[in-house]
Amino acid sequence: MDDDGSKSLSFEEFLYGLRDYGVVVDPDELKTLFNELDKDGSGKLSFDEFLIALRGRMSQSRLAIIDKAFKKFDKSGDGVVTYEDIKRVYNVREHPNYKNGKWTEQQCLENFLNSFEPDESKRDGKVTHEEFVNYYAGVSASVDNDAYFDLMMRNAWKI
């Protein structure tokens, strides 16, 4: 469906892609659907937005392990992850850009923190529980098995 190779779908690509698969929907209804799926309001469907729409809601077991990871991430316990929180849980020593001297420890930590806030215009250096869950919803959408998702989270967050 991604005709231009941008790793996202414009409305036109979405429209023609669905038609290619035999899904015929009124264009106005399809525009409403597209806008509903476009969670970040960018005018394009990212790969994660598309996968999440196809996969549906996460299971309770996935949400529970995400909550455990967030609690570990939020060292201060105030419900928001900041640079100071991340500094206490994320070791940059194995980061390739740190190892080769390209980035400082601060750059590695900021890059990691920013991964949870993909929309640069909305970045405030604070990751809320909702942003954390949204990030892992994208990851979750590409993992078929609950047990594997749980194992992946436990290994990544050492929980």
TrEMBL record:
Keywords: Calcium, Metal-binding, Repeat. It comes from the Eukaryota. It holds the Pfam family EF-hand_7. Residues 1-24, 25-60, 61-96 form the EF-hand domain. PANTHER family: CALCYPHOSIN, CALCYPHOSINE LIKE. This is EF-hand domain-containing protein. It comes from Tegillarca granosa (Malaysian cockle). The lineage of its organism: Eukaryota, Metazoa, Spiralia, Lophotrochozoa, Mollusca.
